[in-house]
Amino acid sequence: MILLPQLVQTTPLLRVSGLHKRYGAVVAVEDVALDLYPGETVGIVGESGSGKSTVLRLLNLEEPPDTGTYQLDIAGYVADNIFALDRLRRRELQLRHIGIVYQNPHHGLRMRVSSSGNVAERLIMAGERRFATLRSAARASLAVSEFPLERLDDLPARLSGGMQQRVQLAKAIALKPALLLLDEPTTGLDVSVQALVIDTLLRLRRERQIATLIVSHDLGVIRTLSDRVLVMRRGQVSSAGLTEPGARRPRNTRIHSN
Amino acid sequence: MKLKQLAHARQDYSYGFLDEFAKRELRRRMLKAIALPGYQVPYASRELPIARGWGTGGLQVTLSLAGPRDTIKVIDQGADDSVNAANLRRFIARMTGVETTDDTLRATIIQSRHRIPEERLREGQVLVLQVPDPEPLRHVQPDIAKARAMHADADYAQVWLGLYEQLVRFGRFMNGASYPVIVHNRYLMSPSPIPRWDTPDLHQAAHLTLLSAGREKRLYAVPPYTDVRPVEFEDVFFAVEDQRGRICMLSSARNKFMDELPQPDGSSRFRISDTGYVAKLLKPDQAERGATYYDDDGRFYIEGFIKNNTAV
Ligand SMILES: Nc1ncnc2c1ncn2[C@@H]1O[C@H](COP(=O)(O)OP(=O)(O)OP(=O)(O)O)[C@@H](O)[C@H]1O
Ligand SMILES: [Mg+2]
Prior knowledge:
The complex is a heterodimer of chains A (258) and B (312).
Chain A: E1 14-23, E2 26-36, E3 41-46, H1 52-59, E4 67-72, H2 87-97, E5 98-101, H3 105-108, H4 115-125, H5 131-144, H6 161-173, E6 179-183, H7 191-208, E7 211-215, H8 219-225, E8 228-233, E9 236-242, H9 252-257
Helix pairs in contact in A: 4-5, 4-6, 5-6
Chain B: H1 3-6, H2 20-35, E1 41-42, H3 56-65, E2 71-76, H4 83-96, E3 99-100, E4 109-113, E5 126-130, H5 144-152, H6 157-170, E6 181-183, E7 187-189, E8 208-213, E9 218-222, E10 228-230, E11 258-262, E12 268-272, H7 275-282
Helix pairs in contact in B: 2-3
Bound molecules: adenosine-5'-triphosphate and magnesium ion.
């Protein structure tokens, strides 16, 4: 696997190897290995059914893999195979350190709960019991994802697709996760709305430097947002490489200076 | 010696109607429920000559607890004289031979639907509450198996999310009766459809409360001197129904839980819902009156426990 040379010395935030998952006769993920460095954004592309979403679901601990090791360089979890944690610690890790945005907002949002409530839920789960704090934290997080704040308390069902994705994003980053998983966050949006959401993601990347895995069909999206790209085919990573240097933001220097 | 001499004389019913095995099972479940405050213990709800939904859960608990020396009070929405209460009382008395009473202080077992009496219960008394729906997570998690996993994990975030939504949409908590509580800092519990006014009565109560749902086949308990806290935010508080300004049309008393009686002219009159207590107010010389949970100015007896008792 090709890595940015200056990143080689740092410990990866995320290290996955030997990941397998099958559903009956369907092999969804086969022997996938993957490293993700702090502050880095890695894109995963691949045809439909190649196992991209399954990889993200496994990393978000939504279901167990058949085999695989998963290490995260997060205090308290360093020595663990994340897949082997007990249910409560898995839930704790998922809550506090992983954020996810799904292509379909129905997976990521409660449609009968206000937008701010969707974001506040993460803080409630983390134990916050002051209404004023929940309110201001939800507002702050929605502001970061550039959600129109006058619609703060609207139900997601009444929002446009782009706004729904912003609510998902605000929810994902509400607890300042170490790892952000984006599963086709812009697919299905109008091209112009897509561009705006991508702008937000770029800004977020610049300001927060959360290690991010982004899945997309759209090579253009991947090229704009990620440092490296993995190509998946039939459940396997068939190739890996840097995204075109010319198209990327100048990130290397910043990571180097860390 | 003949077999006939060894055996009991034939009886039409077992003592307390339920057979001995059923009563023993129920008592064991109650002990388990007491050991795990607020935890819903499943039990085999027996058939009774009363339809499910008419207090059979509470009835089974009462029938398996009652002995000949008990004195029983049965109320429905605070009233001793409602048809359902009278019906249950008569059945219990016939099957167990217990004495019955309207006086909260005299009763050893009080079976109730939707109310806790105004007079403070004391050590040794048992309050049996009839429960239509024991699951406080029902409206956030309709899947019972998942709801049980949430109880196991004490995963109650969604309850506070519900409170958040109520504040955002309506500016106040909208739960009426069955206001959910956390028992002993652990389990979320439905106190049965008692008004919010009665909910604080369960906190650090001297008596034992047993709650039983006959149709849902679950019973649970609040042992004496156990913490029972209504769910609320640290900066927005649980509130009881506002009874200020309401005057009982029978006794002229205030600051007790009132039934509202709409009048033909559109106004309302009020009457204390606890009929046993009204009777005492009307005949002060005939019965001893106990200390109440709320004093005549509407202050709850544990100071500071209700942080907001002025809201609607
Ligand atoms: N829960 C499941 N049950 C059965 N099969 C599944 C399940 N989830 C995924 N699969 C199968 O695993 C394979 C990989 O699916 P996955 O959703 O990961 O693909 P993908 O790369 O995300 O595709 P797309 O680009 O269409 O979203 C597919 O063949 C799919 O049918
Ligand atoms: Mg997919």
